[in-house]
Amino acid sequence: MRARTLLAGAVAAVGAFSAVMVMPDANAAASTLGAAAQQSGRYFGTAIAAGRLGDATYTSIAGREFNMVTAENEMKPDALQPQRGRFNFSSGDQIYNWATQRGMKVRGHTLAWHAQQPDWMRNLGGSSLRQAMIEHINGVMAHYRGKLAAWDVVNEAFEENGSRRQSNLQSTGNDWIEVAFRTARAADPSVKLCYNDYNIENWSYGKTQGVYNLIRDFKSRGVPIDCVGLQTHFTGGSSLPGNFQQTLSSFAALGVDVTLTEVDVTNSSTSQYAGLTQACINVPRCIGITVWGVRDSDSWRASENPLLFDRSGNKKAAYTSVLNVLNGAGPGPSSPGPSGSPSTPGGANRIVGAQSGRCVDVPGASQNNGTRVQLYDCNGQANQAWTRTSGKQLTVYGSKCLDAAGSGNGSAVQIYSCNGQANQQWNVNANGTITGVQSGRCLDVWGTGNGQQVQLYDCGGQANQRFSLS
């Protein structure tokens, strides 16, 4: 399917990963991967090939086990626009329709990539290629607007040392990735926008740092990016890095969701599959895992038997290890981005700014009425722990409510003793905004630094008005 160099186990591993195995309660255990992941607000998905949808064993397993689908090749540039200006969505739509008819969500993969470009695109350069990329993003996203959970907007744009890959897209200018994300957001405000790459699982690796610095820069400047995908193609003996969870947490701390997008493991190592799953479970903003294929025979690495089902469709030991980890996870909050679902009442959450990656915080852990809330580095303390009640309140310390001091633009947002009034009621919306029931205005911050105060302001859909409860 593609040519790439994956890190060998001796290079990728920096120590044994110590996954804390939590055994599920037998009375609560789900019997499929998707259902088990859903218990903690996550998904467990697979890559689907349109050409295999006529295989009854293949579709039976996929339809039963998974709740998210990625098209294996059918939504890549060469498949969707084989001739310039002439789009062909037939195979992509076949997968989309198959998935959604079964209640599954769909991730789009991928809009801008140096590989699997149609021949006509490969023959372009400079401003002509830049314009072709923009037109492709607009055309594809117009077709799928409002339908998908996420798009891998840009795929594999970095070298192993953390520098930019010297591709034809890179030759159009260093800002091409930013242009792709801004074009994608304008084309579909409702879908999560992701950067996706391989060999970024080891926190100390140069490529990981290169991608991290890109996302940090984008978040600091308000470039729209909602998630990062780690492909997680593990090869050889023990290639699960000992710092894998640190990598996931570090990306998440930037204010993006983290997803494992193309998982496969040489010989389906039970310890590696359990370890990567546990690492995701341990990071609240790791929202899902996708394995790259259904059975070993369906894999692009078929000779390595890297998936959770054997060639006959039987569950392997690695399947059971993953299911046990998923069932052992406690209820987890959702992380609503542009297309996420609002969090449900109950449980203490951080309120994390999408633009800043910082938490809504009560300064000095004050419990005084009228203390205005601010942004501050997330620290897990009680003054950053908010509980959403069934009465639409956001409470802190158990008895203080998030309170609007007025209803107009610029009104201060503070804490106050809970009184059940409308100025203490909040709608946590699917697009990531939090709006006052009384005012209809959004929680808003003007900056991204520590100490930036939170206020009400007319909703504009920008990142400084999007928050996640995590």
From TrEMBL:
SUPFAM superfamilies: (Trans)glycosidases (SSF51445), Ricin B-like lectins (SSF50370)
Catalytic activity: Endohydrolysis of (1->4)-beta-D-xylosidic linkages in xylans
Signal peptide from the UniProt entry: 1-28
Keyword annotations of the record: Carbohydrate metabolism, Glycosidase, Hydrolase, Polysaccharide degradation, Signal, Xylan degradation
Region spans: Disordered: 327-352
EC number: 3.2.1.8
Domain GH10: 27-325
CDD domains assigned to the protein according to its UniProt record, in alphabetical order: beta-trefoil_Ricin_XLN-like (cd23418)
Biased composition (Low complexity): 337-347
Pfam families: Glyco_hydro_10, Ricin_B_lectin
PANTHER family, per database record: BETA-XYLANASE (PTHR31490:SF88), GLYCOSYL HYDROLASE (PTHR31490)
Family: Belongs to the glycosyl hydrolase 10 (cellulase F) family.
Protein name stated in the entry: Beta-xylanase
Organism of origin: Actinoplanes sandaracinus
